[in-house]
Task: structure prediction
Amino acid sequence: MSTTESNIFSSYQRDPSLFDEIYDKQGNVKNVYQTLFKLYGEHSINDYMLLNEKAKSSFFNQGITFQVYSDKEMQEKIFPFDLFPRIIDAKEWEIIEKGAIQRSKALNLFLWDIYHEKNILKQGVVPVELISSSENYLHQMMDVDPPGGIYNHISGTDIIKHNDGNYYVLEDNIRCPSGVSYVICNRTALKRALFGVFNHYQTHTVTNYAENLLELLESVKPHGVDIPNTVVITPGMYNSAFYEHSYLAKTMGVELVEGRDLIVENDFVYMKTIKGLEKVDIIYRRIDDQFMDPLEFRADSSLGVPGLFSAYKKGNVTLANAPGTGVADDKAVYTYMPEIIKYYLDETPILNNVHTYHCSRPKELTYVLDHISELVIKPVDEAGGYGISIGNRLSKKEIEEVKKQVKLHPRKYVAQPIMSLSVHPTYIDDVNSFEQRHIDLRTYTVLGKDKEFVLKGGLTRVALKKGNLIVNSSQGGGSKDTWVLKD
Amino acid sequence: MSLEYSITYKAENHYDHPVKEASWQFLILPDENSTQNQVEINFNNSLNLPLEFSHNAYGFRTIRISAKEQFMDIVFEAHFSLVKEHTNPFNFQIANSLEEELKKLHQLEFKVDFEPFLRKTSLTNLLEDHKQLFLFKKDKSLFENLQELNKWVFEKIFYTPGTTHVGTVLDEIVANRHGVCQDFSHLFCALARQNGIPARYVSGYLHQGIGYFGDSQMHAWAEAYMPEIGWIGFDPTNNLIANDNHIKVAHGKDYADCAPLKGVVYSKGENRTTHSVQVSSQQQQ
Result:
């Protein structure tokens, strides 16, 4: 099929240097997208605009909004949603799913090890500095056995497709990864607006997330508990992800609580109800480690529950994710993922890691110094994107300056190839047409006792600003429904 | 020979407005170890609230107390007794040179095991300029170097209550040269760790009456690790090796691991708190 037949895509411009998710290199629409392309092609761009408006208002009506903290007037916003879905076929998805499970399992074993025997450190497979320089390493967790041996019950793995056509993992979020409620709401909105189109594909459901989450959480209930009582704990309604906390509690059919609703007595956790105290066995927490228990961590926290950590240590309550899990959610740990997977599972990584050159190693330092213009140079110990130099955007003078710094403090720097995120046709309000925009994918993996679950879908995030690579919702990113096809 | 100690810890709290809910966690029980035994505890509070025992990250016993009914005053009063064995802190032989000792300390397995006591915490961190303040001398043994560090800290800081608080950073203390036992101990730990020697912060009680700094409140000192001998206590506030007069409660990376009392109180308005500690001894045969 040629592109000229379609009104809706007639003005779509492709940059040949970018990997387009729906067109192949010759400019033909890829197989999985052909039906969709044909169906959308029957409509004019104005039909599409009207449908898009309808879908947007459905988000407002459902109350699916988030707040951006820096805005002067705390404005409620919807996460911009585009009706043109991203499609992943069964074969590609298998790689993503297996790769995500492999990473989650390896990280779980890594966490067990660094809070018990520390063999991987003693054998020098990864440097001891990974924990000694981490503020998220909780000595309180030393020799504590989490129920079922699980630390990272819920992982959000951020994956991109590079212009070589391969998937790469950018990070593993294993503190409190958010966004899963958008995945489900995007699907609802899309089905409402375009049921006829959706029906032409055999797509996996995403609405089974909550039931799987609950089942896997219950598989790691505290010892001796028959029918566990689960709750979701939230920092409160002013948290930007509050909608998601309430959504997950509602769809799992469990109580949503704040710290002040819980109390610890004799190292058991109870919920205050109008009928009296009710024992709580499993807590899905959306509160950071440091705010969990003011008697153990930050004393100025009013979000937590005094005595909670003591109840946890005695094995009377399950916390998901386990305290101290954040140490593995770290840029430096990420760079050692291939070693970590090999060490614990004796496997090679299914999903690629972005290759990392450690400037502390002389051979790699030489390579970095010779190839700065093709690399991203990152300080190891800075968070939040500070001090990052992107080689192809530096002037000659700046390159020399970076070289000097790296030579001076090689241990402080790592370097990675510059990654190019794939692009996907995305409806752009301002110009009322489709344009290429960079996308990534956040997948959701849940680990339980001897079982695991990956949500067949995930959140495709879109960088709405032209040429922008940052897909975060706080930075003006949008999202797409993600269809994982059945075999 | 041994000494029998009796310790009284008292904390009185008065609140201007009724407190609806409160929890406290105490880390004040004398540790049971090779030189401290027969520890007995008698802990009371004026509201007769039940005690809940637990262990902290380093295995030291804590007591948690929660109030669920309104109150305006509460008094905690604890009596401890224990027997402390007399030991001679200098009773060991040092055969190795500093270099040989450091070689052991630099083994990877050792660095991993002692990681908590080699790390820089926010309370034991020093600016680049201050890291060179005290460097170990190669021609002296590890023990001699540690003794000199103890003396150096003692001379560097003037014991001055009220000039620092629990959040004061070490660089500020080094610059102003005033502080209390916590600050002396943090500085000792920071510089020992800087030289590759594991060091831990210790909180406890100091026997009164001799005129040492730090009695009548809880005291703090430090322990440094010597491969041939084990952990040795140094009290830089008094330029002493920890001895019979030092009754250990807990150790940790820094003060934050050893805070004697943590509390969460839901109330408005002001409160007044007074603490007191008394230590007395009786010699045993």
Observations:
- Chain A has 14 helices and 22 strands.
- The interface with chain B takes residues 118, 121-122, 124, 128, 131-133, 138-140, 142, 263-267, 294-296, 299, 302, 306-307, 310, 313-314 of chain A (CB under 8 Å).
- The domain at 355-417 of chain A is CATH 3.30.1490.270 (Dna Ligase; domain 1).
- Residues 1-6 of chain A have pLDDT under 50 and may be disordered.
